[in-house]
């Protein structure tokens, strides 16, 4: 899960904020994706209805996950494939390594798979002496750079063309021009060779259709198709939740996924694989393995976070997230970045290790609004925060601050006094313009970046009360005079 | 018509002039304004930080404060969203408080929403000559679903030239305690927002949430930028500060 040696989120974020190249690249890509998505939604029409349908299908599937997992496994086996259920990262990696060993594999080609990143699969295969080549262009780029992906669907989103040309030039041993056609031509040549020499092809799985035991891959470069047809063996790795019950359900998902991810109506390739090559097939692998990975997912069932299993990994939440825009994917330190990463990583990787992530959000809810299957991501972040509080893992200063806050604001008279005191306490710290700029104590979080105006001389509630008194006095006065006169008269 | 004003703690302590403007505007439209004395805070800081028990106690205080009011208006999209969207959830398992929370949620309105949708104000009948742009706060637009109401009103203010804000829906980076806990990221978000505001060449920034404006105003001031920052209520009050 962890992708960075730097363990502090704050420091990773700080580094990212200082990297203007990174921020420019991310902003540009995000812009392209989110505009594309908005246009695609409008073009399809009834987007909210589509989202509700998507949500309903995902909910039904996850609520009946045991049934569909079994149905899927049965059907894959009927089609001649082998199914393994890996409870942990270890089990999943061990299985793939074992297949590689049994097949005497020297070379492996991979098409993009986030689960394999989660499992750090490449590392294990390379340790075995297997040559692993990522064939998705973005993945290929970051593999050369020795970096983890920084986006669910666009792993090298943080790199610009010049940086990519430098990487490719290193491999080519000559300076390559940094125009896109030259760069893709170079990558295509390199990858073509890898495809032809590979013994095993490893893919992820966008959706697994339970009713027929079919793995569906959604891609744009055709690399997934080559990965699943040229090598002798195909291993597909899927998160246990990536199931759709039927082809009709898949149809809905295929309406939602490409539009949400890249703003495309449909991707260039949608590849459906039901097992290894049959006698009458022209091509395809001799053996097909499906590795279904739990790795903490099933523990989420039945908890307040169950909806997170509805995720179809479209990346839309990343593409609208302002925090992601400014720090990019690597700063999250986890394979899964952005809003979905903030919710999912602590669940899969443990809250103790990932306690900072749920706080890296202004709760603007742009993610929840963008999510094609309506996962209430920002609410789940609050849920995480609440759990931290309940488990007593928050810093004592914060716990006391909120205890004090509650004590004061549930006592109106005390609250009114506290408001008056706030100005008295802050006034000596203010400059001539009445702004507090000093960065000390609890003020620092605010004043390090912004000026703090002093509280008003008179709070609104105090003013209102004073107005009320004045008003009463005004109404009272003439009557007092009248009474006086009456009194005189009666005297 | 008689409404109770929920001032919000931030406006009460830091920006009383916003609430004064809100009172004047409401009165001008024939509404009698009440200000229950025992109101304090809606509990949002605690709720968003995960202190649900604290949030519940604070919420009860607010529910009690407005028990006697038929209609509650607040010049804060964020606090209105807290009351309307989160209160019923906060007390979902509490048979005693749930109906009271739901009752408050049902009678609470954000200021511009109340003027447009309840009072049916079309022409605010005010002049404010300025070139301005409007910040849409996240909790108000996405949480409460109040998007166009402030613009409906502002469009009819005489002399006010409204410049559309690019990336209007993007967060300004306030986020309550987020602004303090993740100050660097929060400031980067503010700076991006400020860049977009500057693109409009507006001289006034108008908003419906003093949280956002407190943060943006503080950042503007830190960066030495002389933009005027006003709440919608102040603009509808002729720009009084
Ligand atoms: S949480 Fe929603 S928006 Fe984010 S990747 Fe998953 S499906 Fe897409």
From TrEMBL, chain A:
State the superkingdom: Bacteria
Instruction: Reply yes or no: does the keyword Electron transport apply.
Output: yes
InterPro entries xref list: 4Fe4S_Fe-S-bd, 4Fe4S_Fe_S_CS, FTHF_cligase-like_sf, Helical_ferredxn, LUD_dom, LutB/LldF, LutB_C, NagB/RpiA_transferase-like
Keywords attached to this Swiss-Prot or TrEMBL record, sorted alphabetically, are:
4Fe-4S, Electron transport, Iron, Iron-sulfur, Metal-binding, Repeat, Transport
Swiss-Prot/TrEMBL GO biological process terms? lactate metabolic process
What are the boundaries of the region Disordered?
469-491
A Pfam family of this chain = LUD_dom
MF GO annotations: 4 iron, 4 sulfur cluster binding; metal ion binding
Record bears the keyword 4Fe-4S: yes
Q: Where would I find the 4Fe-4S ferredoxin-type domain in this sequence?
A: 302-332
NCBIfam families from the UniProt entry: LutB/LldF family L-lactate oxidation iron-sulfur protein
PANTHER family named in the record: LACTATE UTILIZATION PROTEIN B
Q: What is this protein called?
A: Lactate utilization protein B
Naturally occurring in which organism (per UniProt): Calditerricola satsumensis
Taxonomic classification: Bacteria, Bacillati, Bacillota, Bacilli, Bacillales
Q: Which gene encodes it?
A: lutB
TrEMBL record, chain B:
Residue span(s) of domain Cysteine-rich = 3-83, 133-216
| Listed GO MF terms | oxidoreductase activity
Give one Pfam family.
Answer: CCG
Give the matching InterPro entries. Answer: Cys_rich_dom (IPR004017)
Q: Which GO terms describe its cellular component?
A: cytosol
Q: Which domain of life is it from?
A: Bacteria
Q: What is this protein called?
A: Lactate utilization protein A
User: What organism does the record attribute this protein to?
Assistant: Calditerricola satsumensis
């Amino acid at each position: 899960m962890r992708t960075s040696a730097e363990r502090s989120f704050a420091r990773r974020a700080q580094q990212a904020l200082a990297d203007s190249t990174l921020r420019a690249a991310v902003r540009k890509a995000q812009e392209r994706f989110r505009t594309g998505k908005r246009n695609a939604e409008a073009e399809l029409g009834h987007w909210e209805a589509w989202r509700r349908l998507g949500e309903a299908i995902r909910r039904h599937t996850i609520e009946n996950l045991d049934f569909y997992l079994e149905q899927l496994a049965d059907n894959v086996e009927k089609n001649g494939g082998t199914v393994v259920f890996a409870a942990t990262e270890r089990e999943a990696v061990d299985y793939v390594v074992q297949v590689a060993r049994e097949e005497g594999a020297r070379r492996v080609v991979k098409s993009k798979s986030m689960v394999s990143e989660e499992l750090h699969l490449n590392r294990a295969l390379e340790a075995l002496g297997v040559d692993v080549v990522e064939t998705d262009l973005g993945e290929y780029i970051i593999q050369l750079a020795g970096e983890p992906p920084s986006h669910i669907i666009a792993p090298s989103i943080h790199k610009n063309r010049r940086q990519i040309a430098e990487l490719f030039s290193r491999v080519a041993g000559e300076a390559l021009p940094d125009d896109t056609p030259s760069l893709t031509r170079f990558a295509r040549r390199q990858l073509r060779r890898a495809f032809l020499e590979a013994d095993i092809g490893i893919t992820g799985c966008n959706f697994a259709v339970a009713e027929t035991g079919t793995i569906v891959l959604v891609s744009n470069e055709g690399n997934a198709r080559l990965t699943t047809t040229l090598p002798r063996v195909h291993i597909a790795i899927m998160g246990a939740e990536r199931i759709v019950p039927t082809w009709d359900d898949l149809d809905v998902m295929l309406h939602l996924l490409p539009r949400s991810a890249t703003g495309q109506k449909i991707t260039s390739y949608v590849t459906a694989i039901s097992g290894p090559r049959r006698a009458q097939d022209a091509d395809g692998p001799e053996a097909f393995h499906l590795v279904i990975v739990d790795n903490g997912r099933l523990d989420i069932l039945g908890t307040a976070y169950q909806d997170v299993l509805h995720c179809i990994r479209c990346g839309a939440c990343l593409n609208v997230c302002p925090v992601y825009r400014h720090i990019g994917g690597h700063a999250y330190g986890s394979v899964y970045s952005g809003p979905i990463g903030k919710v999912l990583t602590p669940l899969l990787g443990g809250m103790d290790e990932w306690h900072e992530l749920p706080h890296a959000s202004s709760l603007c809810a742009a993610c929840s609004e963008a999510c094609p299957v309506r996962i209430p991501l920002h609410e789940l972040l609050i849920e995480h925060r609440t759990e931290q509080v309940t488990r007593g893992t928050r810093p004592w200063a914060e716990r006391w601050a909120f205890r004090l806050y509650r004590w004061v604001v549930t006592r109106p008279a005390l609250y009114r006094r506290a408001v008056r005191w706030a100005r008295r306490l802050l006034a000596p710290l203010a400059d001539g313009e009445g702004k507090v700029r000093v960065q000390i104590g609890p003020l620092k979080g605010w004043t390090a970046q912004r000026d703090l105006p002093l509280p008003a001389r008179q709070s609104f509630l105090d003013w209102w009360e004073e107005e009320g008194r004045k008003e009463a006095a005004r109404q009272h006065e003439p009557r007092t005079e009248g009474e006086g006169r009456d009194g005189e008269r009666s005297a | 018509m008689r409404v109770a004003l929920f001032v919000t703690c931030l406006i009460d302590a830091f920006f009383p002039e916003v609430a004064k403007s809100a009172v004047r505007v409401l009165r001008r439209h024939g509404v009698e304004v009440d200000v229950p004395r025992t109101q304090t805070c809606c509990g949002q800081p605690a709720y968003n930080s995960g202190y649900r028990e604290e949030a519940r106690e604070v919420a009860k205080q607010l529910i009690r404060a407005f028990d006697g009011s038929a209609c509650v208006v607040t010049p804060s999209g964020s606090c209105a969203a807290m009351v309307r969207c989160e209160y019923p959830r906060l007390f979902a398992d509490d048979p005693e408080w749930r109906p009271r929370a739901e009752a408050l949620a049902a009678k609470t309105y954000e200021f511009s929403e109340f003027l447009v949708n309840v009072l049916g104000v079309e022409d605010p009948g005010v002049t404010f000559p300025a070139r301005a742009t409007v910040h849409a706060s996240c909790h108000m637009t996405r949480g409460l679903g109040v998007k166009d109401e402030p613009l409906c009103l502002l469009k009819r203010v005489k002399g006010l030239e409204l410049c559309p804000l690019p990336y209007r829906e993007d967060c300004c980076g306030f986020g309550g305690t987020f602004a303090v806990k993740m100050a660097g990221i929060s400031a980067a978000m503010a700076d991006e927002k400020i860049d977009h505001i500057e693109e409009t060449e507006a001289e006034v920034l108008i908003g419906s949430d003093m949280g956002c404006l407190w943060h943006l105003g503080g950042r503007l001031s830190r960066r030495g930028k002389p933009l005027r920052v006003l709440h919608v209520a102040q603009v509808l009050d002729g720009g009084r500060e």
